[in-house]
Design brief:
Layout: E1 4-10, H1 17-23, E2 30-35, H2 42-47, E3 53-55, H3 62-71, E4 77-80, E5 85-86, H4 89-101, E6 108-119, E7 125-136, E8 143-144, E9 150-151, E10 157-167, H5 175-189, H6 194-206, H7 210-222, H8 228-244, H9 248-257, H10 266-278, H11 282-294, E11 305-306, H12 313-324, H13 328-341, H14 346-368
Parallel strand pairs: 1-2, 1-4, 2-3, 6-10
Antiparallel strand pairs: 4-7, 5-10, 6-7, 7-11, 8-9
Helix pairs in contact: 5-6, 6-7, 6-8, 7-8, 8-9, 9-10, 10-11, 11-12, 12-13, 13-14
Length: 376
């Protein structure tokens, strides 16, 4: 069994910190909380869970703060969380099992866990990502990037576990802070390129400055090298920008550009299919939705992906496309497949009733024409 240090950086998290720490109670042998300048009750709340609460002078650098928290860890492995993250009971139980199964002194240096970024009805995941979440303390993993910081991968064995951390952000955002950090960073670097350009385009996108975001993402994709996941995210975001700007042709081009960097993934196939669906070209839409079904199990990498694109969405859209073509049996079949994921969805249930009526009527007409034998 391994031992774990939970490392966190916090600032003004009085509304969420206790919820987070309660959700992981008993998981970590030590809890290290580095406060970067709270003016509320955050430090008092933290002190109820651990005596290792530290203050840190904020330097507009998230990686530096996280590295400070990691430096104080003493256990074999480090688990990191944000204050607005939670570990649901079923996931906590799975993490306890993993902790028991990993041998102390073993060769596993890091574990990737799922990250639920958005939830639907009854807590079902809508958008998921994956993060390097549990790392061996002596593996040399360090944080990089003043904003949207990334944890470096170790040289040794990295495994993926079927365990999800859930992000439950409270109301409010940090756009002004992020822009301030980016401007300072760009001024010091002299130019925005690589991951810095990626972050800048992302902030423009989040602030709904779609023209500026599109320019940033397009410039990023022109650069000769870069992280695969960054390029895929850039293609998806660029397509969304073009949609917002009323340029559907360029939207499709941005989606197709993703194939320069990786094999097709379900989210891109669904988005391409939607372009043809909107053009009233159901045959082409069917092709791409079927591609989404075929590649739904492909590893999307470390990037946010809508769960719907890998489950019910392509089948629901295929049902509509086949209905448009008058292929009612195929329409009903894909409606049935979509309902395997969403059995109580009102829209799917209503469409099923309509399709069943049409299919029965069509079957009866075929029987009357002698094309098929009557059902007994």
């Amino acid at each position: 069994m391994i031992t774990i240090s939970l490392c966190m950086i916090v600032k003004n998290e009085e509304r969420t910190l206790a919820r987070c720490l309660d959700s992981v109670a008993g998981i970590a042998e030590e809890i290290i909380i580095v406060d970067t300048g709270s003016s509320d009750r955050t430090m008092d709340i933290a002190a109820q869970y651990t005596d290792q609460v530290y203050t840190y002078e904020w330097k507009d650098d998230f990686a530096a703060a996280r590295n400070e928290s990691f430096a104080k860890a003493t256990q074999e492995y480090i688990l990191w969380l944000d204050a607005d993250d939670v570990l649901l009971p079923a996931e906590r139980a799975k993490l306890e099992v993993l902790k028991q199964q990993l041998p102390s002194g073993g060769k596993t240096e890091a574990v990737i866990l799922s990250y639920t970024l958005a939830e639907g009805a009854e807590g079902s995941p809508l958008v998921t990502d994956r993060r390097l979440r549990l790392v061996k303390r002596d593996a040399g993993c360090r944080w990089h990037g003043r904003l949207h910081e990334q944890l470096s991968f170790p040289r040794g064995e990295v495994i993926t576990a079927d365990i999800a951390v859930t992000h439950r952000r409270e109301a409010g955002h940090h756009s002004a802070r992020n822009v301030r950090i980016l401007r300072k960073w760009i001024a010091e670097e002299g130019v925005a390129q690589g991951r810095l350009l990626f972050y800048y385009a992302g902030e423009c996108y989040d602030r709904q400055r779609y023209a500026a975001a599109a320019r940033g993402y397009a410039k990023l994709l022109e650069q000769p090298s870069g992280y695969r996941e960054d390029r895929l995210i850039a293609c998806a975001r660029l397509a969304e920008c073009y949609e917002r700007l009323g340029e559907p042709g360029r939207k499709l081009g941005a989606l197709l550009q993703s194939f320069q960097y990786d094999l097709p993934h379900a989210d891109f196939c669904c988005a391409i299919a939607a372009c043809f669906h909107e053009r009233q070209e159901p045959v082409s839409a069917i092709y791409w939705y079927m591609q989404a079904v075929d590649v739904s199990s492909r590893d999307p990498g470390l990037r946010p992906v809508p769960v719907a694109c890998r489950t019910w969405l392509p089948h629901a859209r295929l049902s509509l496309c086949y209905a448009h073509l008058g292929n009612w049996e195929q329409a009903l079949m894909h409606n049935t497949k979509a309902r395997e994921y969403l059995p109580n969805d009102p829209g799917l249930l209503a469409n099923r009733q309509k399709l069943e009526v049409v299919v029965r009527k069509e079957m009866k007409e075929r029987e009357e024409r002698g094309e098929v034998s009557p059902r007994k």
